[in-house]
Amino acid sequence: MKCEYPRLMLAAPKSGSGKTMMTCGLLNAFLKRILSCRSFKCGPDYIDPMFHKYVLGIDGGNLDTFFLEKEKVKSLFAAGAEGAGISVMEGVMGYYDGVGGNSTWASSYEVACAVEAPVVLVLDCKGASLSMAAVVKGFLEYKENSHICGVILNRTSKVMAERLTPAMEALGVRVYGYLPECEEGRLESRHLGLVLPGEADGLKEQLDRLALKLEDTIDLDGLIMLAKSAGPLPFCHEENCGEEHEGAEEKPVPGIRVPIGIAEDEAFCFYYQENLRLLEEMGAELIPFSPIHDKCLPEGICGIILGGGYPELYAGELSQNQSMLREIRQAAECSMPLLAECGGFMYIHEEMETKDRQVYPMAGIIKGKVFPTERLMRFGYIEAFSRENTGFIKTGESIRGHEFHYWDSTDNGNRMEAKKPGQEKRWDCVHAGKSLLAGFPHFYYPSNPVLPKRFVKACEEFRVMPSKEEETHE
Fold it and tell me: Which residues, 6 or more positions from 75, have their beta carbon under 8 angstroms from its beta carbon?
């Protein structure tokens, strides 16, 4: 039976097994075979999809069963994978690791079940040999339908791979090859994970060399056949699978877009592609600007989005760009709609303290200071509930998201209440008003499309508001 979506997932028993470089190397190798590829990342990670995009030149997506129900995840995958010769999903953490560390909810395994994908485990064999067969046996038996069809042996020699293959294949999985310990398979890391693609010296050449190595040591034809063996993927074709939300019937007027400035540079680069696509579907025209390099906001915008990233690494440059800080502050004072999350939230404080304890003035929209801590703060999935009616979210409504930061604030806000799934612990978060929503959480807009809908509408209304000069002349 013909499969509309050739697909496979690369997963692993744990983080640090080499999934990202293996994924990038295989995508590059498939491209060199003139095979159209799509990529996806399981979970809420921002950085790995940036590496996928570096290879493919196109945006991928995040597949996450905490953010969305399984049927919606399936629809999301199908929309992104349509027409591709192969779609490769990179797993997150260990294959069965889900919410709370003690369930498979939102794990790579649950995503594999949702999109019915065959799975290849990337095994880090450094310091181990036959014991890896026991690991595979455990993974196969932990769930009745594990979806695991094969393995790739990472950081091992050709000789050892040949010795291990019979033991592995006796378990009912296929060994698709190996990758020896090599420079091509390594990348630097820092506090939020891997360095960004633009910061890795010679990355293109490294990935080209890695693709050549994989041609020699990995059964690429076998992986392509495995992807093509995935069965048909029935899913709901309706945009929201029958679920209505406020304003769903309101479609943007064709040809009329709402210009919204979005921060994109070395300091601000963490965005869910699903969020950006949803904003565009709702009528937004996203206009990139750099808080580091540009002296002023894009002309004619009527809204601002400041996403996450690494502002703490560029605090000096951000603080020195006084004209940009002034324009953003003045825009907020004029009630221009503003979304700021995590790094963007840090940027709009009065002050930012760096890891070396230097303090820099920032935009001053939020009174207080952000400062480094010694550990991840409130790390993990959250659902945030609004305590009162604000411009973009109303009393009792909620939206799902994720927190991942080593910095904290003297004033995190209290307009919303966050809680971790399956736990009783709750805490205050988010500054919100008629035209502002700012806090540490990275929100996933498809989990509540009403929020971005109201934001775009507020931007549109701001565009037609009379300026202070016009009001004076009246």
Answer: 235, 236, 237, 241
